[in-house]
Amino acid sequence: MFTKRLLRDKCGARLEGSERRRLEAAIGNVETLSARTSIGRAGSQTCKSTLLVEGFISRYCDDRNGVRQLVAVHVPGDFVDLHAFPLKVLDHNIETMTTATVATVPHSELDAIMRELPGMARKLWFATLVDAAIHRAWIFRLGRLDAVGRVAHFLSEANVRLVSAGLSDGFRFAFGITQNDLAEICGLTNVHVNRVMRQLREEKLCVFRSSRVEIFDPARLAARGQFDPAYLYIDTASADPILQPSLCS
Fold it and tell me: Domain spans of the chain?
């Protein structure tokens, strides 16, 4: 039950029923955490990895003055720190953005899965590679897009990922992050994000209020943010046409 969204609809990495059962059997603990709860700190050693069941989690780095830079946002179904399995030491911080339910998997269990199910090992490796692809898109977003484009790109990405997790109908989804979180994600000030959201609303592209996002025209929003979902490696063959890359070019 905890892994029903894990790797859902990702090309070449959909877990079989037996694999899901094996992963569920490997879970050592499940708990619900309050928003803004630290899960891991840079420099800390870890012997377990975290699977996000509900809510949203961020990864971030601090500068020497303690000012943070968000480097990732995770949605339900993500293995938040699977890379910590081979690395053992975190190089960044992990924190809940909202109330979140998480399941932890001891690295000893992941070792056993690697030995027992090499096909599943490949799928978990695939998950870390998709994570890296999202990081590359994050760099592109911050380095090449204007303010409106950054927000449009991020919200388009979040929509596709949440559709895959069964948490968006392609037009509307709950998103319990704050406008300040969105500013940090997009490398903008809170005031600037407020102007951007007003512009997106006036252009009838989307609105973000009361922890909900409504996208009026997914294809136009994607085009404004130069968003192509190919890097997410999600199988959209049977999805609504609004998610097809051809409409996002």
Answer: 17-134, 145-247
Return the biggest CA–CA distance within the chain. 55
Superfamily grouping for domain 17-134: Jelly Rolls (2.60.120.10)
pLDDT tens, position by position, 12-33: 577 888 998 999 999 999 999 9
Contacts of 212 (CB under 8 A, 6+ apart): 172, 173, 174, 175
Whether the predicted pLDDT of 212 surpasses 60:
yes
Whole-number Cα distances in Å, 192 to 86, 95, 152, 188, 249 = 39, 25, 14, 6, 26
Instruction: Return the amino acid letter for 178.
Output: T
Letter string b/e over residues 119-137, b meaning 16 or more CB atoms within 10 A of that residue's CB: ebeebbebbeebbeebeeb
Over residues 238-244, mean pLDDT: 39
pTM of the model: 0.90
Q: Tell me if the domain spanning 145-247 has CATH number 1.10.10.10.
A: yes
Average pLDDT over residues 32-46: 95
Residue 64 makes CB contacts below 8 A (sequence gap 6+) with none
DSSP secondary structure of 103-129: EEEEHHHHHHHHHH-HHHHHHHHHHHH
Residues in the chain: 249
The CA-based dihedral angle spanning residues 76, 80, 82, 85, taken in that order and rounded to the nearest 10 degrees: -140
Least confident of 31-40, 76-85, 228-237: 228-237
